[in-house]
Amino acid sequence: MSRAQTLTASPLKQAWLKWRFHLNILLILIPLGFMPKYFADAKLFRGEAGLGANIVRDIQVGPYSLDLAEMRDQEPQADGPAGFFKVFNAALCKACIQDVKATYLRIGKPRSLRAAGTIFFGAPYNMSTSLPIPPRTSPDAQIWITVEGWDGSMHQASVPLAQASPATVAWLKKQGGKK
Amino acid sequence: MAKTPKKSKSRLWFLVHSWLALPIWFFVLIVCFTGMLAVVSQEIVWLADPAVRANKPDGDAQRMTFQQVLDALHEAKPDMIVGGLSQPDGSHFAVKANVTLPDGTSPTLYVNPYTGAIQGKTPDFNFEAFTRALHGWWLVPFTNGYSWGWYLVSILGLPMLASLVTGLVVYKKFWKGFFKPVRTGHGSRIFWGDLHRLAGVWSIWFIAVISITGTWFLIQAILFDNHITLSSEKVVPVIAREQVPQTQDGSPAPRIDLDEAVRLAGLAIPGLEVSFVSLPSTAYSHINLSGPGWYPLMHQSAAVNPYTRTIDSQFLISDRSALEFVTESMRPLHTGDFGGLPIKLVWFFFGLVLTLMVFSGLLIWTKRTAQATAAALKRGERAPRNLPRETTVEVHS
């Protein structure tokens, strides 16, 4: 206010007087602009937009099979000190739902079931997991799927990261360039 | 002489009060309006959609237990996987079931609590979620931490608090204003001014509650985005591998049913009321139960191990720190969701009054302050250090 009084004729003040009410319009435009995104996200979270992006279908894991997809076609997201994460979704084949106790995801081959990676949670028709992506991961890494049966059996398969999430590989290459 | 600085100070406060919401008044108006709607959004949906109602088939029908509801759902749709069941606050609401269908979609179903019949599902346009998203974060998506829309809305708590304080400072003897009649027939400026002051004094408590809790939402986001937690709730570890049985034939290991879980939790935690049940989301997860406790502003929860039948973790009202009593009370105080329909209606009413205050404030401003400020600025060109005089006209009327 003191500025308004001392710099009465300044162009800054004139701009403010002229445009201050247009702030309202700008603020109202924000939710209008985000509305399509809001409804698209709501659809995605209801599972109506499919499993996700870059779906890899019918990955054979021992006697079972599943579809794998990244939740969004985008680079890993930071979660503070915990590092970077990518959300992946998976759908188990209908016939194997009863037999499968747990499904895990990991970058690089796990040495044992205890180090199988992050567990998929939720209904087997559309389950999710948040996979940590260390920034120094090699761009040609494989992501390994481990399926554990209720009978104690363990089965594994892998998919190139470049196929499951091209955006992650692009991000890794960028990270590598920095280091 | 002694009186002059005091008077000019109150003029300054008056100017501050007049200008607080001004450049963004329409934004503030919509936030107040959507907040008012969000308080009763569940009730609006109840009125609009018969599927959301818990209609009793005949006089002596009993409400089903959670396991009975689950059994009814399995019988109706054997392929469907149920993730959780909840009984909204109020027996007139149908039970909500979060389910996943074989095609991978995850609707929320409304289930009749007396018959177990599936009455409908949340429509694609979810009014409750939409009004809350619009009010809470201006629809700006959450990508990394809190959305900037959340900051945009919650920061309004500060000017709102300032409006309350400056409003009380410039309204001399406001405590005498509770029963002042609103004058009609003296022009619309007098009418809106009287209404603004009358609504203001009756809303002192409400504006204080909403602005303080709103500011808390700002603090909450700042804390979260800087990875600072005030919570004393422990992270529940997954069930140990040894406790989850292997089966010879490869079929899923048996787990206790929901009613047994509720019974066990009730034995361990006397007075636990269960209104939310979430089924294990993996083979190594608990059955999570939660519901209101003796202190209406907070929930209690318990995690039941479905294999060993033990309560592996619990978070009760008595487990809260003094600080958590304050911080956890903030959200229900803001939303009015802690005492059923009567409290919600009170919040709705004062939300309407608050919306009206923003609106009447604007009307008064356009009719008075705009001209006064223009005049003051004109004078300011001649004598820049003088405080505007005409703005205080009718302050006390």
Tell me about this structure.
- The complex is a heterodimer of chains A (179) and B (397).
- With 179 residues, chain A is α+β, with helices and mostly antiparallel strands.
- Chain A has 2 domains: 2-44, no CATH class; 53-178, Immunoglobulins (Immunoglobulin-like).
- Chain A has helices spanning 2-6, 11-19, 22-45, 161-164, 166-178, and strands at 53-61, 64-70, 77-78, 84-92, 100-107, 118-119, 127-132, 142-149, 154-160.
- Chain A has 5 helices and 9 strands.
- Mean pLDDT of chain A is 89; it is low at 1-7.
- In chain A, a hairpin with a 5-residue loop joins β3 and β4 (84-92).
- Chain B is an alpha+beta fold.
- Among the domains of chain B are: 9-49 and 123-226 and 341-397, no CATH class; 63-82 and 90-120, no CATH class.
- Chain B is built from 12 helices and 8 strands.
- In chain B, β3 and β4 (118-121) form a beta hairpin.
- In chain B, α2 (25-39) packs antiparallel against α5.
- Chain B is elongated, with a radius of gyration of 27 Å.
- The two termini of chain B are 24 Å apart.
- In chain B, 31% of the residues are buried.
Properties at a glance:
heterodimer; A: Immunoglobulin-like; 2 domains; five-stranded antiparallel β-sheet; 9 strands; 32% strand; elongated; disordered N terminus; B: 397 residues; 12 helices; 47% helix
What structural class do helix, strand and pairing data of chain B support? Answer: alpha+beta
- What is the CATH C-level name of the largest domain in chain A? Mainly Beta
Radius of gyration of chain B: 27 Å
Number of domains of chain A: 2
What count of helical segments of chain A does DSSP give?
Answer: 5
In the CATH hierarchy, the architecture of the largest domain in chain A is Sandwich
Order of helices and strands of chain B: HHHHEEEEHHHHHHEEEEHH
